[in-house]
Design brief:
The complex is a heterodimer of chains A (830) and B (227). With 830 residues, chain A is of the alpha+beta class. Helix content of chain A is 53%, strand content 17%. Chain B is of the alpha/beta class and 227 residues long. Chain B is built from 7 helices and 10 strands. Classes of the chains: A alpha+beta (830), B alpha/beta (227).
Chain lengths: 830, 227
């Protein structure tokens, strides 16, 4: 009989005896958590890679903030390329009494060149692929838009000055373009031919123009070569590599975060595996000694166990992969709508990664100690006290942590990042261990109080302090993850919302044309609303600093790069706006009006390395002007008022295309005012801050739910640590219970002490988790929201409650049968 | 005709270090056991019986001296070599039975045969289990068996590979008197059937008397032999 079949038989026997359950479960959790995340991200990657051209709507896209010049279209035609145009901008649409801000996209006949739209004939009907875009005179609206407006296919919408018929429900478009991940405004698709009649395209309108090109790869390359060097700020060329950059960058960040969450589960599962292995070893010392007596050589024992472990690892990994595959549907449920793309089947990489995760976790945390089994002294069969193996923490955990590092490296694909992740995680674990250790010390004086059950319960926690520590940290991490998302997140969001002043503007009017100023004021006055201040806004691109052209690549921070990549809204004002304060230099006097000076917000100045006296050169609709910085301002952004990074004195910007913006507080009951306003001034956009905040909040909630979903594995892994630890002490507990019962302890006394022990342990674990969540919450509050966050009683109470109940019930159930063992049998067997 | 010597020791010493200094467990033990013989090693607690048994079976190494089984010098072999030799020639019955808790009675009996790579492990084990009248209990786990039954499984396991020598360490130590008697009967019956050399360690003189020879150990030294 060869060793393989013998090993399989042994594996079968061990499994039957329940010896390997904890190991297998821990592995399944680790593999499932990693594969679920990777199956999901793999599907998005596949979508991005496989449909890259489709996602762009063409092979090459020329993007501009001004109208596409006819020469470009002509040149593309000359090279035999197909072309299509799109214009995209936010605007208001009306349906009866209702209005809604939409992301309008006007498309030409040949759109889309690559990929296809999908539409449905009625709201919520099944959708199908269609060729081309909407016919002139018609629009396609997303189901969200149509629902908000209470219209369906066949009804009419007012877009600017004209009415257009809803011809279909748009369910998916290839080039969903930017802002989808935060698609505040729902989509409306119309034909470019209808655009002039709407009157929505104004000189200062913020429109993104696209020229989609498709055709021969050589011609595409030619165009790229010709146009690329001559691109000016505000223009860019995108090809398949650049498709959906927002999805790519969000994906990258999301992927890292989800992978990190999954890896926390792997680390905890590793600890559970290490714990379970300890029990496995202590139970197999005798077996090995007997097998050695019966003639098994060391190499044979090593081979037998190794084969068993590898087969177990493979089986558990396969189950884990299957669970992970099912679980990715959960992630899809939360996140796929946000990604807004059709997802193909995942690649096989997650399967490989699952196998690697399972095997590396097992080989790292379980195999090194198991391989020591062969060294057991055969004399142990005669004298049981002989030949125990020294548990070597270095082999038990050191190799495991190294193995874990390998896994992190696989995920992060970057040594420095991997080291940072592992270092960070170990630091958090160390912090938790310190807190847990401190709590255990505090427990000591309690040992002297109370009755026998109490004393025994408390003594058990502090006597097995090593085990207690591992349990508290293991379960604490799981709870920390949950509390962070469930309690701290809510606390932070409401803290932030509470800080908004009650009269903070809740409605913004944008895109008010100069000739509408009086009309808007009169309208508001007639409606009984005090007309707010209207701020002029000129769109300009920063081109030079101190006469030197800006090279985005030379800017140090991403924020600086973003700032110069987009257009600035310049404004002018006579007086310093409320909520603004000059921090250096001086504000202009009436005599300075019309001079080439500007005031810059201080954080922007810092980001771009600007100071008083520096000059900035802006491009406004093709015309350059240069101005000197005469003052720096600090802005209270939290006032939620309209504010500007760069302000000029009156007289400098008047000659450029301008529109106006204002923000004011409008009580909810006066909402109808805005419907009437949009009817009268269709080009004006109304931003409802509350709605936008709610939408942002919805999206955050959805992302958080996805993360929570991944953290379920963390909690499960924490529970496995708990269970494995309980299991590791089970033999010892059975013997102790037998001795105590022989000495006259009642079953109820022993039961109370077990309940007390685990409830106490859970309480402490919960406290550890809550403290960790609180600290992390405070750091996040300070770093992200600039808030001082003090964890409230809800955090402590929910942490301790969940911990006490969860661990109390699990521990008691797990240990209960200790009491069912007849004491005599236990003592004889010992 | 001189019977073939199966177990032989020469000048066997075992000393260990203790907090009080060096402790002598065995001192110059010389003995020879012939094939098919039944020998009892008796002595008070701490006299060195188990130490001697451990050395005879090659489970421990002597400080000085030689042990040979079937003519093979045990300590000329490495640990693996001794394990192989045990697998081929030696069987054990222990006071604490030493059954593997996760294996059924049948699987426990199969174990030495499986380790030796025998394809007929199951049939042989079933046969021996039948011999010890435990066929009904074949699929029971050790914890589901009484002490006597467990020891019968252990005896079946020991005899299944037809060992040349069987070492038994206080085989009735964990059993009541009547059960102990029955176990010993079984042990001697099987021993006679297979012609095994039996080396039995016990402090029970009544049990020792059933062996052909009794060797008495006192403070690590072999006393005059009585038979």
């Amino acid at each position: 009989m060869n060793h393989f079949s013998l090993a399989l038989r042994h594996l079968h026997r061990e499994w039957r005896a329940g010896e390997l359950m904890v190991l297998a479960m821990a592995l399944i959790i680790a593999v499932a958590s990693v594969t679920s995340v990777n199956f999901f991200t793999s599907r998005i990657h596949q979508a991005l890679a496989g449909q890259a051209n489709d996602l762009l709507g063409g092979d090459l896209v020329y993007l501009s903030d001004s109208a596409i010049k006819a020469q470009r279209v002509a040149r593309a035609a000359e090279l035999g390329l197909q072309s299509a145009k799109t214009l995209e901008f936010p605007t208001m649409v009306l349906a009866g009494e209702k209005n809604q801000l939409v992301a309008l996209k006007a498309v030409s006949d040949s759109y889309p060149l690559r990929g296809q739209n999908r539409t449905a004939p009625k709201l919520f009907a099944a959708d199908a692929v269609v060729t081309g875009g909407p016919e002139p005179g018609t629009v396609w609206g997303g189901s969200r838009l149509l629902t908000i407006l209470g219209v369906d296919v066949g009804d009419e919408l007012t877009v600017g000055n004209i009415d257009l018929k809803v011809a279909a429900v748009l369910t998916s478009e290839p080039d969903q373009s930017e802002g989808v991940l935060l698609n505040i405004a729902p989509r409306l698709l119309m034909h470019t031919d209808d655009l002039p009649a709407t009157g929505l395209v104004q000189p200062a309108s913020r429109i993104v123009y696209r020229l989609l090109l498709a055709g021969d790869a050589e011609a595409i390359g030619q165009i790229r070569q010709e146009w690329e060097p001559k691109l000016r700020p505000g223009e860019s060329l995108l090809d398949v590599q650049d498709a959906r950059p927002e999805v790519r960058s969000a994906l990258k960040r999301g992927e890292h975060f989800l992978a990190l969450a999954a890896l926390v589960s792997v680390l905890l599962a590793g600890a559970a595996v290490a714990m379970a292995t300890r029990r496995f070893i202590s139970r197999h010392l005798d077996n090995c000694a007997i097998m050695r007596c019966l003639g098994a050589e060391q190499a044979m024992i090593t081979r037998l166990y190794l084969i068993q472990m590898v087969v177990l690892g493979l089986l558990a990994s396969v189950v884990g992969i299957a669970v992970g595959y099912l679980a990715q549907w959960g992630l899809m449920f939360f996140l796929a709508p946000l990604a807004g793309i059709a997802l193909p089947a995942p690649s096989l990489w997650p399967v490989a990664l699952g196998l690697i995760t399972g095997m590396v976790t097992l080989l790292g945390f379980a195999v090194p100690p198991i391989l020591q089994l062969k060294d057991v002294s055969t004399l142990r069969v005669l004298r049981r006290d002989l030949g125990g193996l020294q548990a070597n923490a270095l082999t038990a955990y050191g190799i495991g942590i190294l193995a874990f590092m390998v896994l992190v490296l696989f995920q992060a694909q970057n040594l420095k990042l991997a080291a940072a992740i592992v270092g960070g995680l170990l630091l958090v674990l160390l912090m938790l261990a310190l807190v847990a250790g401190g709590l255990l010390l505090l427990l000591r004086p309690l040992r002297k109080k109370g009755g026998a059950a109490w004393r025994f319960g408390v003594v058990n926690i502090s006597r097995r302090s090593g085990h207690s520590l591992v349990q508290m940290v293991g379960f604490g991490v799981g709870l920390m993850a949950l509390l962070l998302l469930a309690v701290v997140r809510g606390d932070l969001l409401s803290e932030w919302e509470n800080r908004l002043p009650a009269d903070a503007p809740n409605r913004f009017l944008i895109n008010i044309q100069p000739d509408q100023l009086e009309g808007v004021r009169d309208f508001l006055r007639a409606e009984g609303v005090e007309p707010p201040l209207l701020y002029p806004m000129v769109r300009a691109r920063l081109e030079q600093i101190n006469g030197k052209p800006i090279v985005p690549g030379e800017l140090k921070t991403d924020r600086a790069k973003r700032l110069v990549a987009r257009e600035f809204n310049l404004s002018w004002a006579e007086e310093v706006q409320s909520g603004n304060a000059v921090v250096s230099g001086s504000w202009w006097q009436p005599g300075d009006h019309g001079k080439s000076i500007i005031s810059v917000e201080q954080s922007l100045a810092k980001e771009l390395g600007l100071g008083l006296g520096d000059t900035l050169t802006y491009n406004v609709a093709g015309q350059l002007f240069t101005a000197k910085i005469s003052s720096l301002r600090r802005i209270d952004w939290e006032s939620f008022k309209a504010n500007f990074f760069v302000v000029a004195p009156p007289g400098l910007l008047d000659k450029y295309p301008v529109n106006y913006i204002t923000g004011f507080y409008l009580p909810a009951e006066q909402h109808a005012v805005l419907n009437r306003m949009v009817q009268q001034f269709p080009n004006i956009m109304v931003l409802d801050v509350a709605t936008i905040l709610n939408q942002v909040r919805d999206i955050i909630e959805q992302v958080i739910m996805a993360v929570e979903f991944v953290f379920i594995f963390t909690v499960l892994a924490g529970l496995m640590v708990m269970y494995a630890t309980i299991h590791a002490t089970l033999d010892e507990r059975i013997r102790e219970a037998a001795v105590l019962r022989t000495l006259g302890a009642r079953r109820s006394q022993l039961m109370s002490s077990i309940v007390l022990e685990y409830t106490g342990l859970g309480l402490l674990s919960g406290l550890v988790g809550a403290i960790a969540a609180g600290i992390i919450g405070m750091v996040i509050a300070k770093q992200l929201f600039d808030l001082v966050y003090l964890p409230g009683p809800a955090l402590w109470l929910s942490g301790m409650l969940v911990g006490a109940i969860g661990v109390g019930v699990a521990g008691t159930l797990g240990t209960r049968f200790v009491l069912n063992q007849p004491p005599l049998k236990t003592l004889r067997g010992a | 005709m001189t019977a073939q010597i199966v177990v032989n020791t020469q000048n066997l010493h075992k000393r260990v270090m203790s907090p009080e200094g060096e402790l002598t467990l065995l001192q110059g033990v010389d003995l020879s056991i012939a094939a098919g013989e039944t020998v009892a090693i008796v002595g008070a607690s701490g006299s060195g019986k188990s130490t001697l048994l451990g050395l005879l079976a090659g489970l421990d190494e002597p400080t000085e001296g030689r042990v040979s089984i079937g003519g093979q010098d045990l300590f000329a072999l490495d640990e693996d070599g001794r394990a192989r030799l045990r697998g081929e020639k030696v069987g054990f019955v222990f006071q604490a039975f030493q059954l593997l808790p996760n294996l059924t009675a049948l699987e426990n009996v199969m174990l030495p045969l499986e380790l030796a790579g025998r394809h007929d492990a199951r049939q042989v084990a079933e046969g021996v289990l039948q011999r010890v009248e435990l066929t009904e209990r074949a699929s029971h786990y050790p914890k589901q068996l009484s002490g006597g039954e467990q020891q019968r499984v252990a005896i079946a396991r020991a005899f299944a590979p037809h060992p040349q020598v069987l070492f038994a360490d206080e085989p009735t130590g964990n059993l009541d008197h009547r059960t102990g008697e029955r176990i010993i009967d079984l042990l001697f019956q099987l021993n006679a059937e297979q012609g095994t050399t039996l080396v039995l360690v016990t402090h029970d003189l009544h049990l020792a008397a059933r062996c052909q020879r009794q060797l008495e150990l006192d403070e690590g030294q072999l006393q005059a032999e009585s038979s």
